[in-house]
Inverse folding.
């Protein structure tokens, strides 16, 4: 009878050890502002790949939730993560001006919080709150400087703005206007929000063309709106208008290759993904992390587009 007892004890021990190893994987809740945004889809996919790259028993399990561009829904998701006692939370905020309650809830619960892609508007973040983003002002500077030189410092431009509740929109446009201050010969003919969407960018540019607006370039806060602008110009038979976007998505890269866009500012989705997941993992393990991590933008033109593919 002793042998079966010893075997049972050993088997139980192994099962417990196996269960412990599985339980050792960190649980991280991720609230994305939207699942239907092209760039954020790449970001989400790269976050998932990074989480799966760690060894079993010392890895990260991500639970993704779609806030559907709803501030209240996103706060509720964060509160649910807290009730589940996750080890860390990653948030891609719906509204960068409305993150106070998210920060308060996470810090009060003692759960590490990482903001990815979009940094909260508040200047100083509390301890145990990290931001992994890119300098959106630099993106605006890069695209506008390239277009300004192509225009020879003269002409009219239109600006397609992203979601007005997002500081990426504010900062990218700020970068554009910082460069424009050096080129008094370039005027802004129109600027309106296309809320990041291709069809909205197409509709706005089509409306401006119908109104008889005269412009030499389109500065879009992202590639999707830039591609929409290109579609509207093609449909109207309008040639010679320079178009610049931001993100360097596969569709954006293809548009540059085909000559439908002049430039884009590459936003490194993989860099943001790796940085955010790694930050959440380290914070959950009580390891030191840089609080403000900035992943640089890079200018994409027809001359270097191949290296981004």
């Amino acid at each position: 009878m002793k042998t079966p007892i010893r075997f049972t004890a050993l088997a139980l021990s192994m099962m417990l050890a196996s269960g412990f190893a599985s339980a050792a994987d960190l649980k991280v809740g991720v609230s994305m502002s939207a699942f239907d945004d092209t760039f954020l889809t790449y970001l989400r996919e790269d976050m998932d790949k990074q989480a799966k790259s760690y060894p079993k028993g010392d890895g990260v399990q991500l639970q993704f939730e779609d806030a559907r561009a709803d501030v209240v829904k996103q706060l509720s998701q964060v509160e649910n993560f807290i009730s589940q006692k996750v080890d860390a939370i990653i948030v891609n905020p719906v509204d960068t001006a409305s993150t106070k309650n998210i920060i308060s809830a996470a810090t009060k619960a003692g759960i590490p919080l990482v903001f990815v892609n979009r940094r909260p508007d508040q200047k100083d973040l509390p301890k145990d709150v990290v931001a992994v983003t890119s300098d959106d002002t630099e993106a605006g500077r890069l695209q506008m400087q390239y277009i300004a030189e192509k225009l020879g410092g003269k002409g009219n431009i239109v600006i397609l703005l992203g979601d007005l509740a997002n500081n990426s929109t504010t900062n990218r446009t700020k970068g554009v206007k910082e460069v424009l201050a050096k080129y008094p010969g370039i005027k802004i003919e129109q600027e309106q929000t296309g809320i990041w969407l291709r069809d909205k960018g197409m509709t706005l540019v089509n409306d401006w063309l119908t109104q008889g607006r005269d412009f030499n370039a389109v500065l879009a806060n992202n590639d999707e709106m830039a591609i929409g602008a290109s579609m509207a110009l093609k449909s109207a038979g309008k040639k010679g208008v320079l178009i610049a976007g931001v993100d360097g998505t596969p569709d954006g890269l293809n548009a540059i290759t085909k000559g439908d866009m002049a430039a884009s500012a590459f936003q490194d989705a993989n860099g943001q993904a790796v940085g955010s997941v790694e930050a959440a993992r380290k914070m959950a393990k009580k390891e030191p992390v840089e609080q403000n991590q900035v992943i640089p933008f890079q200018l994409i033109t027809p001359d270097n587009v191949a290296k981004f593919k």
Remarks:
- The chain is about 45% helix and 20% strand.
- The CA atoms of residues 96 and 120 lie 5 Å apart.
- Residues 1-22 have pLDDT under 50 and may be disordered.
- The longest strand covers residues 186-193.
